[in-house]
Amino acid sequence: MVIIIMAGFFCGCQPKVREKITRFNSLKKLKPNTYPVFTDSLGFKDSSVLTDSLDFQDLVDSIDYSLVYFKRIPLERKFQYGKDAYTAAHMIESLETIKAFLLKNPSANELDEFIRSLFVVYEAAGNEDGDVLFTGYFEPTYEGSLEKKDDYPFCLYSRPKDLLEIDLSAFSDKYKGHKRLVARVNDSTKKVVPYYSRAQINSLKGFDVESEPIVWLKSRVDRFFLEIQGSGRIDLGQGDMVRVHYACSNGNAYKSIGRYLIEKNEILKENMSMQAIRTWLEQHPKRMDEVLHENKSFVFFQREEGGPYGSLGVDVTALRSIATDSSLFPKGALCFARAQLPDKTNFNLVKDGPVKNRPVKDWKKASFFVLNQDTGGAIKGPARADIFCGNGSYAEFTAGHMNVYGKLFFLVLKPGNS
């Protein structure tokens, strides 16, 4: 599972959303005459030239991953689309229908007509203006070692042996629907108490007895950002690479250090980005405890092959997978997004490398199909979506700077149109 909290960096500019949005009103069914134009900007082999030459292999791959999820759960399980509900069996039929059509290499017009004729379209409630804030996350690569060394002093911890997850609904029906508590037993009082906070974990001596080290990193900042992204690659040198993925968290509330730095007037809101936070932390090592400990949440990892994985336990696909609030929106669903993205075609064609400071207002308007395959600690409410951007320089740049408003739609096959 990947838990994405990158979006919290931008909390200083999150929109106000309507109150009492639930899974029964988070999506509004649209009338066919109000459907958007279903043009997929990412499907064009050359995004600088809009032609009928489309390539949907990455989208087909992402659809296949959602199909893996739906085929391993009970077929009668229901997924809420506003006031309507569809079974897992119908979700499978929906995805298999669109996949079969995409494999025919349709033109842009043919794809638009196909969606309009066979699919029901719902729009995410969004904020009070109906807009959704899109941010991004990516899979970073950091240098590391399997053994602690002088230049690799920071441990990436596995799930602690003393960490407990308590399901209160097992004790009383009044707790049904509540999140599980993450706790530990206090050795002296024998009472169950909240698990250690970030500050406590960092100050505990011998914590690696309870939590076995996975790898050791050069930088404490690297470790923090690895927690933010939820997964990553660790370069051990000489061509050796291991992948680490989210295992669990300490259950403490997440707090945005980006917001904290804005409130302290350390970084201007308009300059806030993942890169800006990293630069500030590296330039102020004596204040690292002060800032990082503002976020009491702490993430534990596990080594796994493949991935990165979303909360559905399936691979996420660059620019084809999104994270939303899983309590509001149907998991694994086919979606259509309208937002802005940096121009990938020209990203690496600048003389001195990527344009690091290109403002978001200059990003290209884009519309593209995605699958709802992840969730995250800061991805809450009907006005939030986080796009998985992949790995590499483009992914890092996009995830670090993406903070744009757009529209999000959920699509499902009309009943009886198989």
UniProtKB/TrEMBL annotation:
Species assigned in the record: Desulfobacula toluolica (strain DSM 7467 / Tol2)
Superkingdom field: Bacteria
GO cellular component annotations of the record: outer membrane
Lineage start: Bacteria, Pseudomonadati, Thermodesulfobacteriota, Desulfobacteria, Desulfobacterales
EC primary class: lyase
Entry annotated with the keyword Hydrolase: yes
Entries under InterPro entries matching the protein: 3D_dom, MltA, MltA_B, RlpA-like_sf
Name of protein: peptidoglycan lytic exotransglycosylase
GO MF terms, alphabetically ordered: hydrolase activity, hydrolyzing O-glycosyl compounds; peptidoglycan lytic transglycosylase activity
Catalytic activity from the UniProt record: Exolytic cleavage of the (1->4)-beta-glycosidic linkage between N-acetylmuramic acid (MurNAc) and N-acetylglucosamine (GlcNAc) residues in peptidoglycan, from either the reducing or the non-reducing ends of the peptidoglycan chains, with concomitant formation of a 1,6-anhydrobond in the MurNAc residue
Domain named Lytic transglycosylase MltA: residues: 141-302
Pfam families reported in the protein's UniProt record: 3D, MltA
Keyword Ion transport: no
GO biological process, one term: cell wall organization
Enzyme Commission number, as recorded: 4.2.2.n1
Name of encoding gene: mltA
UniProt entry keywords in alphabetical sequence: Cell wall biogenesis/degradation, Hydrolase, Lyase
